Amino acid sequence: MMIRRRARSVLALTATALAAALTLTACGSGGAGSADGRLDVVASFYPMEFLASQIGGEHVKVTGLTAAGVEPHDLELTAKQVGRVQKADAVVYLKGLQPTVDKAVADSRAKQKIDATAAAPLEDHHLSEGHTEDDGHDHADEHADGHHHDEAAGDPHIWLDPTRYAAVARSVGAGFAEADPAHADDYRRNTDELVGRLTALDQEFKDGLKDATTRTFVTSHAAFGYLAEAYGLTQVSINGVDPESEPTPARLADVQKAAKENGVTTIFFETLASPRLAETVAKDLGLKTAVLDPLEGVKDRAKDDYLSVMRQNLTNLRAALGATALTS
What we know:
328 residues; Rossmann fold; five-stranded mixed β-sheet; 12 helices; 9 strands; globular
């Protein structure tokens, strides 16, 4: 990620993994397609996998690198996974989020290397998105534990704004059409259908949040800057974009102050990280807790997908913000 999360996460792939990858790729060049003739696509983590599957449909074989329930920033590629990236026809990923994926993609022979950030450039989102007054926090050093994030790279959570995610979808559709011209019309049609659903979701958020009695929400980490920006909300986060860092006492005091001043009723935590800090802050303030899912992964893919989880996020936000408007 933009976060230098752990030393092991930014190390180059091991010699063993590279050797295995070279062995796997020696048998043929990239672009050979899957065994059944479908476009062989590798997707780095769930939001990219969802786009690839929805747009590719029956013409693609999608392999996700990040298993359900796994925090994507912690991903360490196996030798087999490196080989899959090396041989893929197309790779869909978000540059900077997973350093080991970036390395494998750089070495890949894929016809299409589709980077989400090319379609939706990243922006910086600090801990207290939208505040106009100084929150008393030094943004140059967000964490007490020595972790830092790369401010130049920006916040990676672009998929939490449906309009930005739609721009990435169009990029994926164009890449698939170029890699597999025989099915280009199907890829374009699937892309248009998905963009239509994302546009409808965007309108649901606009309608559902327009009459909120407070527009400030508190989260366990700063994943929701794009969502806040899209719908005129203010994100106050306990942590920065690194969900496992420890906030300073000064940061916790800032969060408590913001919650009191803005009539916050709920402290949000997420599904793939510990709720401990959110629960502690909520207990200290006598507030409720609820889930706001950053959708970095979906645990039960038979039950949920991007659209259903985003709609649940909207429901939870409406309850926390005192919204009275009905969704479409």
